Amino acid sequence: MDKPTLYIANKNYSSWSFRPWMALTGVGIDFEEVLIPFDDAAGNPNIKAVSPTGRVPLLKHGALKIWESLPIIEYAAELYPDAGLLPGDRAERALARSVSMEMLSSFRALRSACPMNIRRPKAKIALPDGVDADISRIETIWRDLLQQSGGPFLFGAFSGADAMFAPVVNRFDIYDLVSRNDTLAYMETMKAHPAWRKWEEATRAEPWIVPEDEV
């Protein structure tokens, strides 16, 4: 089987890149990584040369190109059915897809006010309307799933659903947004995962600064 190639952007800021990278790395899927920084306000032409949308992440497998984080994870789950990217139980797979899609399509107030920034020192900011509601809904998702599965991850073992929420873990952490013990425990579990630590280490070596994401 040909090894897929995952195109990503700056690890410190690119939440969309973080999700599929964390998913594939977290379950041990072997892939080539190509990082194209978004270091140009108009968009890096090297990204546009690779991706039909002009954005990353993008997974290339042979002649096939797949964009957007969730379809990448879904494709990898079909390509590597024994890797554990999706729960084994049909009902749990449906639930994992539901919460992953909600993460993809919702929580705009949180994402706008609190950009992902792995290197940012922890500090609170003034929060606009809507952020508290987003936080509450995400905590409810996590709490319900962890109670059902018994943890330590949302569906017991690490899966693509955890990877979809990885950027939120960073946001909750660096903007000091949460205090519930169960939320904090799940965040620590995620941050202790070897894939998370590998990504975080790589951010420390990146030279790029994106001012609009330095809240």
Automatic annotation (TrEMBL):
- GST N-terminal domain: which residues? 4-84
Q: Which CDD domains match?
A: GST_C_3, GST_N_1
Q: Which InterPro entries match?
A: Glutathione-S-Trfase_C_sf, Glutathione_S-Trfase, Glutathione_S-Trfase_N, Thioredoxin-like_sf
- Stretches of the chain forming a coiled coil according to its record: none
Domain of life of the native organism? Bacteria
UniProt cross-references to PANTHER family, sorted A to Z:
MALEYLACETOACETATE ISOMERASE
Protein's name in the database: Glutathione S-transferase
Organism placement in taxonomy: Bacteria, Pseudomonadati, Pseudomonadota, Alphaproteobacteria, Hyphomicrobiales
